[in-house]
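DM between two lab members

TW: hey, do you still have the Uridine kinase entry open?
JB: yeah, one sec
JB: this one, 189 aa:
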Amino acid sequence: MLSDAAPGIAGAVLAAPARLGAVRLVAVDGPSGAGKSTFARSLIAALRERGAEAGLIGTDDFATWDDPVAWWPRLADVLDRLARGVAGGYRAWDWSDGEPRPGAWVAVPVPDVLLVEGVSAGRASIRPRLSRLVWLELPDPALRLARAVARDGESCARQLAAWQRFERGWFAVDRTRHHADDVVAVGSR
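TW: and the structure you got?
JB:
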């Protein structure tokens, strides 16, 4: 179960140095359908149980079907503000109808720990600022696709399959898993 790994990783996060100003930045990365969002929520809860102010940003607030990873400068602006001890914010995408459109403004206060969760969260360009990189591992692409379709709806199946093809290439070049501090194996449930 994903939540079983969260308490130990929370302890490791809090023991790690802050590298984004006074903020410990944690990336939760891995392929679509692996359980990143579920794990990130468990890790946030474990951090808060230990008294840390913890925030969460999902890359779904930035990425689109047509722009899976090039949106990073929008998030980097927020992270740069946090590194200076200044609250940040961004306009998230609203995915309520299955396609992205401009959504709500999301304020990002300066936390003790900030988790960035989603495909490319642990990319090479951010690694020097990370306190910890967690990789979620679920090797079966058919199972991951089924889980992602169950989460996002059958209408997204074609885009999710294309996304899987893209992320295989992304992870091969970025070598994200190779740089992970923690690899969390996800069961088939």
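TW: got it. The CA atoms of residues 31 and 119 lie 6 Å apart. The domain at 2-185 is CATH 3.40.50.300 (Rossmann fold).
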